[in-house]
Each structure stands twice: as C-alpha cells, then as structure tokens.
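Below is how a single chain appears once it has passed through the pipeline. First comes the sequence as given, then the structure the pipeline wrote out for it. We keep one example in the README because the format questions we get most often are answered faster by looking than by reading.
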Amino acid sequence: MERDLLQVQNMLRDKGILISFAGRLSQSLIEEYGAAVKSYLENEERPQNEVYHIFSIFIEQTQNIKNYCSLKQESPFGETIAQSCIVTIGKSDNGHFICSGNMVANADLAKLTARIDPLVSLDKAGLKQLYKEKLREASGPESAGLGLIDIARKARGPLIYSITELDANLSFFTLKAIV
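Resulting structure:
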C-alpha cells in the first residue's frame, strides 16, 4: 500500500497536479475544500484575478458534479455516480488547469455536450453576450448552463472535455478549463 501511495504521488507530480480530491461531494466538503484551495493559491502569491478565476471554476465544477449526483441519487447507478467524483487543480506550460470528472448516465450525455459544444466555438465577446442573455432569462431550468458559461468566460481558451464509455449505462465525463 505504501508504494502504491508513493506511485500516486509521483504520478500527480508528473502530471503537474497540485491539489486533488476524489470521492463523494457534499456542500460542506465543497466549502471546506474551496477555502483550502483559496488559501493554498493565495499562499503561492499568485495574482488576485488568477486566484479568483481558479477558485470560482473549482467551486462551479464541484457544484455541477454535486448537483448531478443529487439528481441521480435515486437511479440504479446513483451510488456509483456519487462515488466517482474527482477534481484536480494543477499547473502546466499553458497555465493552471482545473479538471473535474465523474460518471454520467449515457442517456444524459447528449444533453450535457449540447450545453458545452456551443461554448467551445464562442470567443470572449460571444461568451459575454450569451452570459448576459442567460441572466435575463427566468431563473430555474431556463437559466441552466449559466455556470458553464461563466467557466468558459474565465478560462484562457476553449473548454476541453472527454467522454470514456464504461459500459452500456455509464461513461466517465471529464471537463478541463485552463486559466
């Protein structure tokens, strides 16, 4: 076990991962990890706007995962989905990245990618305009996706996602934003 942990630590370091969380997310955990992430970034003496962007993307990604897990709580795969959550913050040559992942029911993938794909093709001005339009809409399901737009606005480049099919029912979805 000790060697396995050392291998995990070395792999994280090799991938540039500074902070990692894996497991079931709750509101209190998100708040605690959010405070720890903010403190960690501030101690690294990063520019305040960079700290804000990394922190807010981290919070938005974890909230999105937690909300999805809550929606799937009663499904046959609810527990598996809830245990599959992972969020990492790291640094690469392109900047800092916030990468999140979780299992998603295959039936939900088309709806999820339909929210992200249009954001990938928009420039900053287009994202700003879309964000304002969504803000004017009624709250609730009609304004769903506002958080993804905000992540895309704060990211340096387009959002990157991947889907790995696990079986006939579930896939692993990963979302990455670079700041």
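The mean pLDDT is 92.

See the next section for the split statistics.
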